[in-house]
């Protein structure tokens, strides 16, 4: 099953559906136990629990309650716990009493030398940035990388919007975030702010909610859906992809996109364009033609990188989009679509793959902080699938369903990396995957390839391309790189 991310409302629905478990405090007990366990694991890794120092920052709601109960459990283990109450008369009363009984102390401000700080300021009930009192407490902490405390966020790092993942300023930056029942949208959309996300089972059913979904594919799912040739297959039957990219003057995009298509699946890759000779000299297996009329049949097209935006490019794009084949449109192709949106008014599957700048060109508006709503809105309005690139890739279908992928590193932020993505995703479309699955699976392999190629040093798109096949192999063998975190 894909990992499903929930909005704050959906979380509340799931909690209320748990009935007595919510009313009698069982959910909170389980949640706080999960938080305490994560803190204990952190302390054990670095020398044990007894005598260690944990600071807790407590807000006015149940998020603070979780943190206080976790503090009580830690105090019982011999951890020295101190808590700053941001709103003393609204702090969770039963949690505060339990904390005091277990030996926890309340203080005006956190001392230095703490091993762990627990962020219990706000969870799914939070709005906007950290308020000044909380901002001051967190502002005084030394970063973990400089020897400061590990920051464990309860549910959501405070100051991060649970639904949109918007990281307000200021906001808590967590080393680990502990959430309950199911991850929230923010755990994907603001993954880098959350650090490692741990999802604790508290006995709620996180699947019973309707409406638009945000999910991500696991490595195992991507491995399972990757096309592999069956005994009866031949070079045609697996889906032939056609790549239209680059030019004789600028062959780079042609080579990168076509090479990625060759690497991603078996079968055949065709190329159409004036870089045909360059492409074939790099990849002799590509069947290349200079014009569409000379190209053979394909099952999907990937069109756009480096094709230019002149009338010839427009006519070519028009011809491709007037077929009834799945089409991926990227880069220059998107600039043309922005000028002529009617081009994508078609029935066959269409996947647009903009980066933020191209997205703004398509919509006429800058991409705001709510990337999820923006990508969903464009997909819905235009009736196409839209893959928004970046560290967190989002692929929206016209029905509102979104698949996301956290690249896990940012080594892919290099020129030409998008051409590689087009080739991978185009070949998956040709193999018959839906646009959303093709886009999300391509993004995941792309991310693994980037991390495999980089190994902690910068890469270019050629390195990324060379790592596509090893990344697929590692994924299929069940030993993916550490590229992606799954809560
Ligand atoms: N229900 C359950 O069984 C379970 C719930 N669980 C836990 O409960 C959490 C949700 O608790 P919740 O609904 O009480 O809201 P919560 O996130 O604590 O914050 C609300 C308070 O914060 C305040 N506030 C808002 N914005 C702020 C800001 N920027 N900076 C500072 N303060 C701000 C706001 O105050 P006000 O705006 O009124 O001043 C309001 O009082 C959830 O995330 C999970 O941890 C788990 O135990 C599992 C079981
Ligand atoms: N900060 C980042 N972290 C991880 N991946 C990124 C980041 N920025 C871009 N990428 C990925 O790298 C690729 C860049 O594509 P694009 O912007 O179209 O570049 P180009 O046009 O130069 O090929 C996309 O797959 C995108 O998701
Ligand atoms: K929090």
TrEMBL record:
* InterPro entries (alphabetical): CARKD (IPR000631), Nnr (IPR030677), Ribokinase-like (IPR029056), YjeF_N_dom (IPR004443), YjeF_N_dom_sf (IPR036652)
Q: Fetch the HAMAP family from UniProt.
A: NADHX_dehydratase (MF_01965), NADHX_epimerase (MF_01966)
Question: What is the protein name stated in its UniProt record?
Answer: Bifunctional NAD(P)H-hydrate repair enzyme
Q: Which part of the chain is the YjeF C-terminal domain?
A: 218-475
Question: Which reaction is this enzyme known to catalyze?
Answer: (6R)-NADPHX = (6S)-NADPHX; (6S)-NADPHX + ADP = AMP + phosphate + NADPH + H(+); (6S)-NADHX + ADP = AMP + phosphate + NADH + H(+); (6R)-NADHX = (6S)-NADHX
User: Domain named YjeF N-terminal: which ranges?
Assistant: 11-210
Q: Which co-factors does it depend on? A: K(+); Mg(2+)
User: Which residues are in coiled coils?
Assistant: none
Its lineage reads: Bacteria, Bacillati, Actinomycetota, Actinomycetes, Mycobacteriales
| Record note on cofactor | Binds 1 potassium ion per subunit.
PANTHER family, alphabetized: ATP-DEPENDENT (S)-NAD(P)H-HYDRATE DEHYDRATASE, ATP-DEPENDENT (S)-NAD(P)H-HYDRATE DEHYDRATASE FAMILY MEMBER
Record keyword Nucleotidyltransferase present: no
| Positions annotated to bind K(+) | 63, 119, 158
Which CDD domains does the annotation name?
Answer: YXKO-related (cd01171)
For binding AMP, which residues are annotated in this chain's numbering?
A: 389-393, 418
Q: What functional role does this protein have?
A: Bifunctional enzyme that catalyzes the epimerization of the S- and R-forms of NAD(P)HX and the dehydration of the S-form of NAD(P)HX at the expense of ADP, which is converted to AMP. This allows the repair of both epimers of NAD(P)HX, a damaged form of NAD(P)H that is a result of enzymatic or heat-dependent hydration. Catalyzes the dehydration of the S-form of NAD(P)HX at the expense of ADP, which is converted to AMP. Together with NAD(P)HX epimerase, which catalyzes the epimerization of the S- and R-forms, the enzyme allows the repair of both epimers of NAD(P)HX, a damaged form of NAD(P)H that is a result of enzymatic or heat-dependent hydration.
Q: Which PROSITE patterns match?
A: YJEF_C_3 (PS51383), YJEF_N (PS51385)
SUPFAM superfamilies, per this entry? Ribokinase-like, YjeF N-terminal domain-like
Whose protein is this, by species? Answer: Gordonia sesuvii
Q: Does the keyword NAD apply?
A: yes
| Protein family according to the UniProt entry | In the N-terminal section; belongs to the NnrE/AIBP family. In the C-terminal section; belongs to the NnrD/CARKD family.
Can you tell which superkingdom this protein's organism belongs to? Bacteria
Q: What is its EC number?
A: 4.2.1.136, 5.1.99.6
Q: How does it assemble?
A: Homotetramer.
């Amino acid at each position: 099953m894909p990992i499903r991310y929930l909005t704050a409302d959906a979380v509340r629905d799931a909690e209320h559906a748990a009935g007595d478990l919510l009313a009698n405090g069982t959910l909170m007990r389980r949640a706080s136990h999960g938080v305490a366990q994560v803190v204990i694991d952190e302390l054990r890794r670095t020398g044990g629990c007894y005598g260690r120092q944990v600071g807790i920052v407590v807000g006015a709601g149940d998020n603070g309650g979780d943190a206080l109960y976790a503090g009580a459990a830690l105090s019982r283990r011999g951890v020295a716990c101190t808590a700053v109450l941001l709103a003393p008369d609204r702090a969770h009363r039963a949690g505060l009493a339990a904390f005091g009984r277990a030996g926890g102390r309340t203080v005006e401000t956190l001392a230095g030398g703490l091993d762990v700080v627990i962020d219990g300021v706000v969870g799914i009930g939070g709005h906007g940035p950290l308020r000044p009192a909380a901002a001051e407490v967190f502002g005084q902490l030394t970063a973990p990388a400089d020897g400061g405390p590990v920051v464990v966020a309860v549910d959501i790092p405070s100051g991060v919007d649970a639904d949109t993942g918007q990281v307000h300023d200021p906001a808590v930056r967590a080393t680990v975030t502990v959430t309950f029942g199911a991850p929230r949208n923010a755990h994907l959309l603001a993954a880098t702010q959350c650090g490692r996300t741990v999802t604790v089972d508290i006995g709620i059913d996180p699947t019973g909610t309707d409406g638009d979904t945000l999910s991500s594919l696991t490595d195992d799912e991507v491995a399972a859906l990757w096309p592999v040739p069956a005994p009866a297959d031949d070079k045609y039957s697996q889906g032939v992809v056609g790549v239209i990219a680059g030019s004789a003057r600028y062959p780079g995009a042609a080579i990168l996109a076509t090479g990625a298509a060759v690497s991603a699946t078996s079968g055949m890759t065709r190329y159409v364009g004036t870089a045909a000779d360059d492409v074939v000299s790099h990849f002799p297996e590509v069947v290349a033609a200079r014009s569409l009329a000379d190209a053979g049949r394909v099952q999907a097209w990937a069109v756009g990188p480096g094709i230019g935006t002149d009338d010839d490019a427009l006519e070519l794009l028009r011809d491709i989009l007037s077929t009834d084949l799945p089409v991926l449109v990227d880069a220059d192709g998107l600039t043309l679509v922005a000028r002529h949106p009617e081009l994508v008014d078609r029935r066959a599957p269409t996947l647009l793959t903009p980066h933020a700048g191209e997205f703004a060109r398509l919509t006429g508006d800058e991409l705001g902080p709510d990337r999820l709503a923006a990508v969903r809105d464009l997909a819905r309005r235009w009736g196409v699938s839209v893959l928004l690139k970046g560290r967190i890739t989002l692929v929206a279908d016209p029905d509102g369903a979104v698949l996301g992928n956290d690249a896990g590193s940012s080594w892919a932020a290099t020129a030409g990396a998008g051409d590689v993505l087009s080739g991978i995703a185009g070949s998956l479309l040709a193999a018959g995957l839906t646009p959303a699955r093709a886009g999300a699976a391509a993004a995941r392999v792309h991310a693994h390839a980037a991390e495999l190629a980089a190994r902690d040093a910068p890469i270019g798109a050629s390195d990324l391309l060379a790592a596509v096949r090893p990344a697929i192999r590692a994924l299929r063998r069940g030993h993916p790189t550490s590229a992606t975190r799954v809560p």
